[in-house]
Amino acid sequence: TARARTAGLVQGCHVLAIQDTTTLRDDGKQRSLNLHAMIAVDAADGALLGLVDAVFLNHVGGKKQLCKKRPFAEKESCRWLDATNTAASLVSAGAVCVTVIADQESDIYEEFACRPAETELLIRVHHDRILEDGGTLYSCVQNVAELGRDTIKLPANPGRPARTVVLALRARTVTLMRPKRNHPAEAAKLPNKVTLTLVDAREVEPPDGVKPVHWRLLTTHVVGTFEDACRITGFYRQRWTIEQVFRVMKTKGFDIEAVRIAEGGPFENLTTATLIAAIQVLQMVRERDGAADRPLQDALDPEDQPALEAICQSLEGKTGKQKNPHPKGSLAYASWVCARLGGWTGYYGKPGPIVMMHGLLSLKAMLHGWSLRNNV
Question: Can you tell me the distance from the alpha carbon of 370 to that of 145, in angstroms, rounded to the nearest whole number?
Fold first, then answer.
């Protein structure tokens, strides 16, 4: 249902399909329950469009020594390619382009070699692969001239304050050779080589005592100019959106990790609902200023608009800052209502995920009551 809703919003868009895995439960004894999710982001304006895919992974330790002996389809790493295949369906829904983005864990040869033709890829490098010319991936840009330098704002992460970073950008075409496989039959299914573009983004003159930023990015997009390289690094920076979604789900928001209900159905169902709600919260946070001019139906149903307007009237005050400044029917209008319900006064700062989460929970209860009014 969530995927169908997202598919209805991608018409004419270049979609960034961002995927990642997060741990939900871990007993510290080689057993964990993980969630692998993919979200859709509009490449043009950064708007979060919704959920594309989600699967649960029950991981039991002690099997890593057998990993290289199993067919790829039986490995947990197959989830990256499975989600990429799901993302391809967004093209038939009207997306003009779908670029799948993931971090280092998805640097898997099968991901590049077996991707559906409807998708492009943008993957951060993990392996120093052998190239067709005999060189290696990590060293192949040493003699490549800079395309230019881009100044970006690096957001804060746990243990890392926000700061401004200057990146030297380089790019070149690379041809990766197929890695060795223990199963000859498995290897025979893969092409001997894959040609991609490597974008190297390295921080210039980092502050003392700070680990410099260095991104090696493999992409199927053509990168020939400085503007092309900036576009690719800009796409990669949108990957942090899915980390924000997970953060809202967990201890900084809904605290799904603290829920003590049984696995095998109940916990997974609640987690799925929480994932969808976390995406709605972040949709509203990102559109609180109305910058992307997104419609209400990104996060709420159009039939909720009359109730939303009635609730808004009860929240507005006499001063200008206590009035909803956004047009009715817009997502920003709903974001203002949720923020006020969550405790934001309208005067100080901007509402964040926690305020928006509390407001959304209140709004959902009110909308449920509104839907029952004719039956009372």
Answer: 62
